Amino acid sequence: MIKQLKIQFFFALLVIPYCLTAFAEEAKQQENEPIEQKVILQRLYLDGELSEEKLTEKIWTMEDFWSKYQGWNVVNQNEDHIVLNKTENDISPLLKANGYLGMKEDGTLSIFIGRPEHAKIIHTFYQLDVGKLEVYKQEELQKGIPIVNKDQYKQLIKEYEPYSIN
User: How far from chain centre, in Å, is Cα 62?
Assistant: First the structure.
């Protein structure tokens, strides 16, 4: 019996440290592996357009992740995904590519994707007093004015503001 206890004791002294070392190495290996997280990035543009981008991030450290997304706000976070949003100080890529400022039939100043006569309205501003508008401005709005950048967008909205019905 004593001989059997000595063998078990010797076995425990030899095997337990080995097992603990193997377990520690496995835990260390898992610590060095990145976490994969689904991330949804929402961008709100000056023209009211909301874009959404879905991606999977490999996160080595949370510090690196938050550093990468500095300036973004957390909307929702759970074990499946994290939703971040940000307000952009620019017009949307969609508007830059195919946006037009125009006027609906009822005289409402609006942003269209494509020329106003057959296009989708993505944003409306205010009702215009069409009687105060010069004829060339009415024609310009009926055809649609291409929007190319943020400055032009802001300038056009401001230009037509005096013609709004209060």
Answer: 19
